């Protein structure tokens, strides 16, 4: 497979010709794409990936930025992925993200092993935390209310500095408030 064929592979995604791109995979190709924990192989795994991403990002595109040969059959592709988050995005262990309307842009890397014009291995990687940060909706009013309570607890802590029992109680309340605030800012992190 040549660089031209690799560009065609991404054009198929961008033009929503998923079956054409899926036909480039061998039936037993290893496909390691988000969502995590896939167990399918070949075209089926690729189509699952496209369904997941296009449902979440109907206008999503993958633009090759750099294509490098890494030997006889390996290709390393740097991509810019962009799209508007308009549908639920299932990220396996990271949960499901409700539509946020966020316009996202990510650096994505795909490693392809191509033999006899077909893809036998595809591993797509991205900074999942960067994606999650772009998809997270923070309610400013709730965040400000938590910050106000943290400020009040700061004052309480100063006032009870000489009383170990009261100090411990204020610190425990402060810990709960900090945890609640973190959940507002980073709702995707689980305890």
Question: Counting H and I runs of at least 4 residues, what is the number of helices?
Answer: 6
β-strand percent reads: 25-35%
- Low-pLDDT regions: none
The residue-averaged pLDDT reads 90
Number of β-strand runs: 7
Largest sheet: 5 strands, mixed
Secondary-structure topology with pairs:
Blueprint: H1 3-14, H2 18-22, E1 25-32, H3 42-56, E2 61-69, E3 74-84, E4 89-90, E5 96-97, E6 103-115, E7 118-126, H4 128-135, H5 140-159, H6 164-185
Parallel strand pairs: 1-7
Antiparallel strand pairs: 2-3, 3-6, 4-5, 6-7
Question: Can you walk me through this structure?
Answer:
Helices cover about 45% and strands about 30% of the residues. A hairpin with a 2-residue loop joins strand 6 and strand 7 (about 120-125). The model has no long low-confidence stretch (mean pLDDT about 90). It has about 190 residues and is of the alpha+beta class. The chain starts with a helix and ends in a 6-residue tail after the last helix. The radius of gyration is 23 Å and the shape is elongated. A 5-stranded mixed beta sheet has the order 1-7-6-3-2, sandwiched between helices. Strands 4-5 form a two-stranded antiparallel sheet. Helix 5 packs antiparallel against helix 6 (about 165-185). It contains 6 helices and 7 strands, in the order ααβαββββββααα.
């Amino acid at each position: 497979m040549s660089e031209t064929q690799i560009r065609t592979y991404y054009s198929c995604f961008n033009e929503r010709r998923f079956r054409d791109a899926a036909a480039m995979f061998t039936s037993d190709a290893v496909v390691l794409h988000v969502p995590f924990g896939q167990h399918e192989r070949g075209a089926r795994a690729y189509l699952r990936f496209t369904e997941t991403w296009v449902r979440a990002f109907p206008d999503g595109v993958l633009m090759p930025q750099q294509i490098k040969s890494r030997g006889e059959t390996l290709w390393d592709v740097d991509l810019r992925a962009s799209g508007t988050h308009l549908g639920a995005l299932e990220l396996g262990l990271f949960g499901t993200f409700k539509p946020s309307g966020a316009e996202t842009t990510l650096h994505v890397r795909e490693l392809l092993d191509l033999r006899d014009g077909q893809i036998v291995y595809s591993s797509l990687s991205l900074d999942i935390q960067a994606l999650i940060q772009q998809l997270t909706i923070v309610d400013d009013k709730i965040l400000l209310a938590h910050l106000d309570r943290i400020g009040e607890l700061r004052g309480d802590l100063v006032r009870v500095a000489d009383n170990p029992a009261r100090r411990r109680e204020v610190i425990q309340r402060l810990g709960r408030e900090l945890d609640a605030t973190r959940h507002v800012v980073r709702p995707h992190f689980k305890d």
